[in-house]
Amino acid sequence: MLVYYAITNAAALTLGRDPARKLPVQALAVIGLVGCVLLAVNLPLASVLAGFGVLALGAAWYALRPARH
């Protein structure tokens, strides 16, 4: 989950500034990204390794699946 939210916050950093909105979008994205990273580095090592293992399996499954037209 933290990887998903970190990617989402990093993607939000690419949004342009909208003068019609009063919210500081980039500042909120930075705070969210920093929060995800801080939470991730404070997890037990076994949890981090298990999470990376699941991500690696998902990436391998995606890369090796047959292409559908």
Automatic annotation (TrEMBL):
The chain crosses the membrane at residues 23-41, 47-64. This is Amino acid permease. It comes from Micromonospora qiuiae. Keywords: Membrane, Transmembrane, Transmembrane helix.
